[in-house]
Amino acid sequence: MKPCTPPGALNENARLILDIAWPLFQQKGYRGLSLDELCERCGLTKPTLYYYFQSKENLYLQVLKRQIDGYHTAISDETLTTPQRLENLAAIMLEQMNSNWLAMLRDLEHFKNPENLTQIRAIFARDLLQPLANLMENAAQQGELRSDDPELLAWSFLGLVSTFTGRLALFDQDAQAGARWLVNFFMQGARQTH
Where's the DNA-binding part (predicted)? Predict the structure, then answer.
């Protein structure tokens, strides 16, 4: 069987599958979403799905990788300030997440192939957690944040944003306004004190 098409080379069917799978995995979880339902929603056959993604695990891995790539892009623009970069990340997460992303990461425990689990953990660490921790460390060096463990600050920020995913309607806010509030709240709490 051929390997999964790399994200940069996705054709229309592979993109469609990923686009439709993302909200369905959020809504139903890894175990709750059947590939039959996904194929029906996509208007594609199971052999077509398996042409692009060898297994449900591989599909879930690619869905998560695609999202993490977007998060990485949001915090990578070095021309922006720390709050602006954090706001970009928070806005994307609030806009695109209908459920708690930590619950989606917990779904990884259902993976049967340990290599897939190792791969997504490495992608998460390399493309989201470490760049976010580096951003926190740089902000601490510039006096914007206290000099706590940067990885702990990164996890704290992700946890704060995660708490509000899928809940913006309760506050009558759009994603950008919600992100701005969350970043201000985080920056106030993590600010360097003298």
Answer: 34-53
